[in-house]
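Example 3.2
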Amino acid sequence: MRLGQANSYGYIVSPPISLSDNGTATSLAVSFYIAAQNANAIDKATLTVSVEGTDLVSSGYTVASSEPASNTSYLLSSNDNLKRIWTISDVSSLPDPFQLRFATSTDGRICIDQIVVTETFSSGLPKLSTPVVLAPSTNYTGFSLSWGAVSDVTAYEVSVNDVVVTNCEPSETTTIVTGLAEGETYDVSVVAKGDGTTHDDSAAATLRVTTLTAPAVTAPDLTTSAVSSSAFTVSWPAQNDAAFSVRAWTLVPADFATEDFSVYKADGTVPEGWTFENSHEHYTYEEAPVDFKGNTTLWIGTPAFGGTIASVSFHLRRVSAVTGTFTVYGSTGSTDSSDWVEIKTWTNTEIATGNYSIDELANGDPLASAGFTRLFFKTVKTAGNFGFGTFSVAGTGVGKQPSYLTGYGPDATAVAGTSVTISNPVAGETNYIEVTATGLSGKTASTTRPVAVPAAATPKPAVISVK
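Structure, written as tokens:
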């Protein structure tokens, strides 16, 4: 959650909190994670924590007041250590119930998360001995932990960042924690649990554990050699103890084609074969990243598909109220707008967010009967914006799909070393090879390269001359 705005402070107040009836409360620990929202807030952003409406820490804080003053304020000098813990030792001064207030200064916005209030109380029973924790053994996504046995224990409770992750039996003094992020630091604790009759829980044994960071992997740089109709070799440099796997295929006709515009959403790259005469200010909408912004005439065109289009589907998102039209056109291949044929038009309020499908012409004839191999989407508007995406077409031979070479797909084949020779390419076709590098922590990076494989030589007939 973000606290504060550009030129004003902000705050949040917790729900009412009451002490438990488990004994005499001795202290409260308020733990939370904070971070400066951006670099400009570092050395400026201050978070003040107080008890609402009491003089325990400060006189309270109201919206109309100036910058809050308190001896429990946290200045973010960096984002290296995000966890803070405020201990309230004078528990007797707390009202019942009480509320906590987290307030920012006007100097910088703060992000806050994972607020946990922990009550420490005395039951009057002797505490169990604190477990002695041995140095953990870490990996990329977790760690193994062990500790010395404690007498009279009923269980061991292991927590990560104040969240209990496992409870161990009295005879178990080891555990494995998984599912953590690579290269991150975690606060870990182990508590020996008492029976509540003869012994109370132990104090927590605490430590900080940082998971390992594996060497990065990069997309392999592929080099082809010895290309013939019967074989070709692909090589790449070794890197960071990575393992490599390979897929290889050719493309064969398919009766469908799709485009999700993910590359355009990522960095504005227009997909191969498409023509964009639009605003070139892509949206971040997953289903509709292609932008039609501005009060003007805009259009996009599909690639030339290899067969006749029988149906088309797409998602249209109305970002703001539109005054104008949105039209789908077809052509038999030409990009000249004078050759486009209107298929369907929507006007003003008809342009709504949703999925659209077309499989017939305005006169009711099947779309396939027009013989279109290419589509265009055009808007003429004086107000409003909308996004486009999640495109697909169906029809005879309108797309291509991979046909994997034997031994190299669809599942990738592990290879030893940094090269592979493909001995069964399809002659006279473009073959594709994908090499994936997999790092020690399972991260991957891939490169795909087309390889033009020549056709096999045709033997010439022998000529015998007799004199």
